[in-house]
Amino acid sequence: MKRPPTILMRARDRERRRLLRGAVAAAGAAALSGCDRLSNNPSFIETLKGAQRLSHSAAKVVAPRAAMAQEFGPQDIAPVFRSNGTLDPRDADYRQLRAAGFADYRLAVGGLVEKPGEWSLEELRAMPSRTQITRHDCVEGWSCIGKWKGVPLAHVLERVKPLPAAKFVLFRCFDSMGDPSPTAPDSRYYETIDLDDATHAQTILAYELNDRPLPVSNGAPLRCRVERQLGYKQAKYVRAIELVTSFDQMRGGKGGYWEDEGYEWYGGI
Amino acid sequence: MEPVSARTAAVTESDRRFYRHRLPVRVMHWINVVCLAVLLMSGLGIFNAHPALYWGRDSTFAHPWLAIWSKNTPHGPVGVTRIAGKDFETTGVLGLSQSNGQPNPHAFPTWATIPGWYSLALARHWHFFFAWIFVINGACYLLWTIFSRHLVRDLVPTREELMNIGRSFVDHLKFRHPTGDAAKRYNVLQSLTYLIVIFGLLPLVVLAGLAMSPRVDSVYTGWVELLGGRQSARTLHFLAAFGLLAFVLVHVFEVIVSGVWNEMRSMITGWYVVPREHPPAVPSPLPPADASLAKEMQP
User: Fold this and answer.
1) N or C: which end of chain A has fewer CB within 10 A?
2) How many Cβ atoms from other residues are within 10 Å of residue A61's Cβ?
3) Chain A stretch 158-217, residues whose beta carbon is closer than 8 A to a beta carbon of chain B
4) Do B37 and A144 touch (CB under 8 A)?
5) Class at the top of the CATH hierarchy for domain A68-260
6) Do residues B88 and B143 share a domain?
7) Peptide bond preceding B299 in cis form (omega within 30 of 0)
8) Interface contact A4-B286, CB threshold 8 A
């Protein structure tokens, strides 16, 4: 039934609306500051990070080791392959190798292996190679397509024969992310991947980009390509490779430079 | 008084109580509210890491169709939003905003992101954790909605309702809301919107999100091409998210104009008080000056 609104009703209505607006604003502000408090709470963030285990397990089921990343045609190659992170390492040992055109570079592969090995660039080039035109996906959100040539990591691993205790492949890189002087705390880039990814057909140690020797800004003389993970998992300026059981004792204990800075170890998403 | 009013007046409020939303719908609805809020805001935080969108397989860095950034001008820094090659100055909100009195040179302002400062790593943790809850909740909803017959009984409009879509459209524009038995069912525009959201926008936002995972891309090599490539998928993810935001804004608006307490109660307790039938068109007893208010007061 329609009744003429009284002054009282109008006031009550206004009051209700004012209350509602106030409640919504207060709830919104409380939720926002609550989220920020949670973001500063390490155990809450650890809980959120737990989702990566679920993501990784699900990925292993729906995209097992045989599942291949998309490969493209020559017409899809980007005119300039964007580089990110370190563009020109300042470390003295790297500068020295670079000055000599990486002629003295040796890739040392050791750790939990039967036969540790050391190879020059020339020797790596003489090994079986794989060429692939793939899409590089940065954690920031951009993508770039490039053509890579390198030796499959699986081949190198066959040569050194990993021991049963070996669970992860650790890449030690030349580039210091902080102060490169030898007296400063070690801030050289490092990464770890599991054997599942390490032995994937498209995981290669690349020495060529777009039919030319790998440029310094893209990780010369050797970088890893792990095509089903994000860019930060794909170590540039690889100095040495080690097979390890775990990475808990390494630096921040999270398995990589960016992982120690808070990013997920599983970078397939 | 005319007989119609006397008759409706005899029906008390408790007689008009109607159990509208069953418990699973209510629980899943509120889980969804939390998930969508966190996903949108952490998503904007992630976007801030590379505030540009492209169409295609990879990024043509010089030609994003959307980019939001800040730049220096002789008059100081400004926020710029570029859409399809056209630049708009958006200082204060997009590209350059204030955060605790400090200039914040990120695409989306801190009040719109989780966390409330720039952190790609943290924004990703929030996003993926709540994405899992959102997807599991959504899957439960789909199963429930099919097996409880909520879908065919409540959500799919009847032929008759579809025939009257024009009237429903006019009713919405006039803010006239269904009363009596009609208020016990979703109206036709409402159910069509829900169907578009449930079977269109939500699957799209999930699929386009998954397409950005390089590992999921390898499930079936090349499937991302169906969305136009990975950068197109990122664009679609963004557009679908804003489509969902638009839906939420309209949804909340409709809740407010159709009786916020009644609507909120029905989504919390399940119980809804069915609005009285509209009285037949009779000359308004009110003086013309109060006519607009009278409309608002209509139950």
Assistant:
1) N
2) 8
3) none
4) no
5) alpha beta
6) no
7) no
8) yes
